[in-house]
């Protein structure tokens, strides 16, 4: 099941489960659209492309909640700054 991580790995911005600003790679690394743009749409961890994260229906979030574990790796995101 998709983890739906709560934040951007680069800037630590909160990303709600229904956020249209959340992008993920195939390993579920999670980024906001602004940071993903700075990274050229490529995950700094695996090099894979980033896509819009699917949303989960609100009535299913109670039974299958989004992750609360934050991943924050700003050092890996510096490669995309420029």
From TrEMBL:
InterPro entries: DUF1272. It comes from the Bacteria. This is DUF1272 domain-containing protein.
């Amino acid at each position: 099941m998709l983890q739906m991580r709560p934040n951007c790995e680069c800037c630590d911005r909160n990303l709600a489960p229904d956020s249209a600003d959340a992008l993920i790679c195939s390993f579920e690394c999670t980024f906001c659209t602004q940071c993903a743009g700075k990274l050229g749409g490529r995950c700094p961890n695996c090099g894979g492309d980033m896509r819009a994260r699917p949303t989960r229906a609100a009535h299913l979030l109670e039974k299958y909640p989004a992750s609360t574990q934050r991943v924050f790796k700003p050092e890996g995101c510096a490669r995309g700054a420029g």
